[in-house]
Amino acid sequence: MDMNGKTVFITGSTDGVGRYVAAQLAGQGAKVLIHGRDAARGNSLIEEIKRAGGSAPVFYQADLSSLAEVGELADAVLADHKRIDVFVSNAGIGSQNEGPQRQVSRDGHELRFAVNYLAGFLLAHRLLPALKAAAPSRIVNVASLGQHPIDFDDVMITKNYSGSRAYAQSKLSQIMFTIDLAGELKDSRITVNSLHPATYMNTTMVRAGGITPMSTVEQGGKAILHLISGDDVADRSGLFFNGMNEMRANAQAFDADARRRLRDLSLKLTGLA
């Protein structure tokens, strides 16, 4: 896909791999819609891209731990843009951000499930009219190799909590959603794929977990850019990639009943039901 003139919305794009991807796309002439919680970071990215000669991105500020703010973010983007060529659900928090203890979102949901999964679930559904208007278009969910099956008796992990489990459950949820949405959209010319960009990139999330980085944001960014614009994935959907290579996700992702239960819960929690 030639990205010149294309509109791309990337959540969590004022830092880390999202920032790298936004800058690369802007340099290719794309109209990039960036998102973050911190206006100063957003403005610094705008200036960085302008200095490099790229098209100035548009910044949208929102805290994805609040479903109300997620809804307002969707409203703001849709008010400004009737067509979106690519939506990248990249925003996320790691297993140790702000400490190892269990945390909840503003809506009372387990924080990683809310930010890493529910926010992207809601945004994807709300942005569908603009994605359909721009078809062929793409949705890219930035997930992880870290995947933990969902315990539907305790989705919010009120017992035996660990940050790593919460993170991995949120990422498997993204992959299950990817498969489901790809099925729903199979005749719409919108593809939906997910990926693990790279292992322990040099990002704020990784450093917050006390982990020594093993790869770069450039490596992870290239894998995300592949799903955004690669010709070889133009007509492929519902897949999970490890970097550039397709691979099989956790077995629960292929359990249709588990996906149905997750979908029903997600529609209820986000108010889409």
Describe this structure in words.
The protein has 273 residues and is an alpha/beta fold. It has one domain: Rossmann fold (3-Layer(aba) Sandwich), CATH 3.40.50. Helix content is 43%, strand content 13%. α1 (16-27) packs across α7, α4 (111-133) packs parallel to α5 and α5 packs across α8 (256-270).
Question: Outline of this structure?
Answer:
With about 270 residues, this protein is an alpha/beta fold. About 45% of the residues lie in helices and about 15% in strands.
Tags for this model:
single chain; 273 residues; alpha/beta; Rossmann fold; 8-stranded mixed sheet; 8 strands; globular
CATH architecture heading: 3-Layer(aba) Sandwich
Give the termini separation.
34 Å
In the CATH hierarchy, the third-tier topology is known as Rossmann fold
CATH class annotation: Alpha Beta
Average of per-residue pLDDT values:
95
